[in-house]
Amino acid sequence: MNPTRRLLILMVNTDPRNPEELAAPFYYAAVAAAMDHQVDVVCTATAGKLMLKGVAAAIAVKRGDPKTVYDWIREAHDQGAKFWACPANLELFDMTEADLIPECSGVMGAAAMIQDVIDGDCRVLTF
Q1: CA separation (Å) from 40 to 25, 64, 65, 72, 82?
Q2: For the segment 4-48, what is each residue's pLDDT rounded down to a tens digit?
Q3: Which partner for 70 in 44, 46, 53, 56 could form a disulfide, CB atoms 3.0-4.6 Å apart?
């Protein structure tokens, strides 16, 4: 695959306690995947909680809207985006891979992510 056709979305500053921040990264992931780009979304720090079963499903971006953050994740996943949890988050939040939502492909560590960026294998958006 052409290296410029891969997009890495790093969710490191997005906080699930601020729902208005949560739709944009998943919308960008869905759009890029629909454009036939390879999309990897890595959720780390506090955003890593979104990969835990039940968390994203309990958050609406807009009060009163029936669409949850989990719906946004599923839409991006349905377009082909892959989601990854940070392995350090598993320990931080007392999670195991069994606790992750089905849309999460597993874990992507810092070394793999950094190597992709250094090798020029992808473009990066951070949220």
Answers
A1: 11, 30, 27, 15, 5
A2: 589 999 999 999 999 999 999 999 999 999 999 999 999 999 999
A3: 56
